[in-house]
Amino acid sequence: MPIRADLPPEPEFAAPLEAARPSPDTLRLLALRRSTPVKALAEPGPSAEDLDAMLRLAMRVPDHRKLEPWRVLIIEGDARLKLGQILAAARKLRDPDVTDEKLAEEMQLPLRAPVILCVISSPVHDAKKTPVWEQQLSSGALCQNLLIASQAMGWAGVWITEDAAFDSHVHAALGMHGHEQVAGFIYLGTAKEQPTERQRPDVSAKATRWTG
Ligand SMILES: Cc1cc2nc3c(=O)[nH]c(=O)nc-3n(C[C@H](O)[C@H](O)[C@H](O)COP(=O)(O)O)c2cc1C
Q1: Is the confidence at residue 128, as pLDDT, over 80?
Q2: Is ligand 1 within 6 A of the CB of residue 5?
Q3: Which residue from 12, 24, 47, 63 has the highest number of Cβ atoms inside 10 Å of its Cβ?
């Protein structure tokens, strides 16, 4: 059941903040967090108020030199139909022999969830100061913050890219500039079925102690 995000007011610039805050709820959420497969998403989706809150939280992201090298397109309602047409047209250009059936499927893709947040990496070209790679990482962190914030509010979601994220025709139709990339489409809604645990990494193999 989604909850209304009862957020503290935005702190004033230079206001004192907590360096750490023990939060069992946050630890539990992270320990059991799971994306919901996009096929298992359904109505309802987050309200405009929910989206404002989660975007505000998500944009409190590490950002070297405060470049804000990202932006977000909120795609909901009938805009999803327009995106579907764009995806189908892009698919036809990528694959002229595609069947009408596949094109119809492509058109339906954005309807899999009530809300899609398209996170765009929009690096500022001062590469000699903050490398583009760092700016792109900040966009990835923003995507993850969106997943965590939305799930903490009670919404199910998943970060996907699919072919659309890498298609220049889709980029142009979304109004993206040449230097921008899609970091992810965050599909948000309500889970029709609860997800199950997936295979997880062996932490001791992936994180080793470097001793010089
Ligand atoms: C950049 C990025 C792109 C992804 N694209 C897709 C995708 O197109 N389709 C998909 O099924 N999962 C995609 N995933 C994986 C899911 O978001 C998710 O992480 C995965 O299903 C594992 O589930 P978990 O988040 O619960 O660990 C992507 C993940 C990342 C980080």
Answers
A1: no
A2: no
A3: 63
Q: CB within 8 A of 85, min separation 6: which ones?
A: 107
| Structural domain range at position 170 | 35-76+111-192
pLDDT given for residue 5 in this prediction: 83
Checking if the pLDDT of 192 tops 70, the result is yes
Please say whether the dihedral angle defined by the alpha carbons of residues 165, 168, 170 and 175, taken in this order, is positive or negative.
Answer: positive
Alpha carbon of 174 to ligand 1 centroid (Å): 22
- Please give the tally of structural domains in the chain: 1
Measured from the CA of 38, which atom of ligand 1 is nearest?
A: 11
b/e string for 115-147 if b means 16 or more Cβ within 10 A? bbbbbbbbbeeeeeebebebbbbbbbbbbebbb
CATH number of the domain residue 134 falls in: 3.40.109.10
Task: Say what the pTM is.
Answer: 0.97
**Phi-psi region for residue 182, left (φ > 0), alpha (ψ -120 to 50) or beta?**
beta
Distance from C-alpha of 171 to C-alpha of 7, rounded to nearest angstrom:
34
CB of 123 closer than 6 angstroms to any ligand 1 atom = no
